[in-house]
Amino acid sequence: MNTLDKSRVLVIGLDGGTLDLIGPWGRQGHLPAFAHLINKGASGPLRSTIPTISPAAWTSFMTGKNPGKHGVFDFIRRRPDSYQLEYVQTDLSSMGTMFRWLSQQGRRVGVIGVPMTYPPEPINGFMVAGSWAPENECCAYPSELAQFLWEQGYTINNAMAYTPDTARAFAQYVEEVTEVRASVALELLRREPWDLFMAAFRDVDTLQAFYWHDMDPAHPFHTPERAERFGDVILDHHRQLDRFVSQMLDEVGDDATVVVMSDHGGGPLYHEIFINNWLLEKRLLALKRRSDVGDLYRKTLRRLGINRSTVIKLLGWPLANRLKRIFPSWVEHMVPWPHTGLIDQIDWSRTKAYSFGSIGQIYINVRGREPQGIVEPGQEYEEVVAHIVEELGKLADPETGTPISPRVFRREEIYWGPYADKGPDLNVVFGNMSCISHITLDAVQDRVLAPPADYETGTHRMDGMVVMRGPHVQRGAVPQSAQIIDLAPTILYLMGEPIPTDMDGRVLTEMLIPDFVSAHPIRWADRDVPGISISGWTLEEEARMVQHLKGLGYLG
Ligand SMILES: [Zn+2]
Fold first, then answer.
1. Per-residue confidence (pLDDT) for residue 70, from 0 to 100
2. What tens digit of pLDDT does each residue of 89-120 get?
3. Ligand 1 center to 56 CA (angstroms)
4. Domains of the chain by start residue, with CATH
5. 538 C-alpha to ligand 1 centroid (Å)
6. Which among 458, 511, 512 has a CA at the least distance from the CA of 20?
């Protein structure tokens, strides 16, 4: 294994990056650095997690584990013993990431901008938290690094919201913050020693959400006027990232392996589905008495035209921004207040199934598991699931009659591990994700399907991307059914390190040179990445221990 001792890997993460766009744009000459990597390396689709949403996908990327082992399924989760929802905060310290594992092997690791990394891990190197982290001095490890970030004007979250009125300014804003992120990443790449360096960028996904229809003449919201002004916003952002990738390639030379990956893909959004309304129609969900205050509340909201963007307008951006810092995902992904109130309107004693989450999650109200569960595990559970699956198959676009073609993934098919029972009973992918669920009940009480709200015209796709180039990568190879959980084992293997047995992914050997693979057997460690919480250490204690070990020369 000596030849691999010094092997270095550079990972560039693009939230929402897809070869559906980057491939053709590369071939057309718009993205020379991406095209170079694709031409000289191996590339193909990378299957994301289910649900296909950033928190679950990025956490699976870092840990090499399915969500049943790390417990992050979405931005929100149901509180134990309650139907109230709460914001998911990750605790990397108890999860065991490849970054920690490499640190413990004495390798140097630098990570900037990967979502779900707050608080950052005390690793043998540095970590700057990514999206949805609060912007404080704790967002970087070591914390002295935060000062450097603020001096550079670095921001973790976008401090501006998209609206049609601010479409030009928003694109400009994203360009500016991306420039700062890229230059900070480059500076850290140059000045810090590293064996694994990773920089992740969030705004491919952001811009695809709001400007997809401008570049896509087939999108129902496409207009020539907007296309003229904003049709190149997504391409221009990729061009900007391409320049950054080019600079990174110049820095690392040919001996490092370069990986470009995304947490999921991107594509057009045509509909939102209000799953709880559908469950209500199918008498699988019941509300408390019709005359209740919730109905009145919803009607009032609808009459006043209140939605997330009007909320932001009403509150004013500074206050909305403060909310965003406290509950970042809430402001980004849902109307910030009626959420829990509407949950309160459900009559649980007559409800067999309910939904919350951002893609198409359905939960069965199981006796003994849910606080007021009514569905018996076993035969009744199976009957309810079968009924839902059958009824979902009949769903069609009300205007065109086109079937929505849902694909249903049952919990036991896709999750295993200690948190598997916390995941949705059913994950439904509607129309290849051109239709996604709208968070829980909504003011639009009388509809199941509606055009997308909140100006979103693009959303995720299950297939993200992986591009790999390096001395051990087989040029032109295509990954076979590669999944996001495969990247951590593959990166560890390329760095000559053993792979923790508890990782679920596999090494993507089909992307590597066969002679290299046969000369370097995959080594599995006989243990998992130990988490700090298992040993009862606080992050500060762990940080002091890392410093201590460094001082003693145990860690490089
Ligand atoms: Zn994402």
1. 92
2. 667 767 789 999 999 999 999 999 999 888 88
3. 9
4. 2-265+462-551 (3.40.720.10), 271-459 (no CATH)
5. 29
6. 458
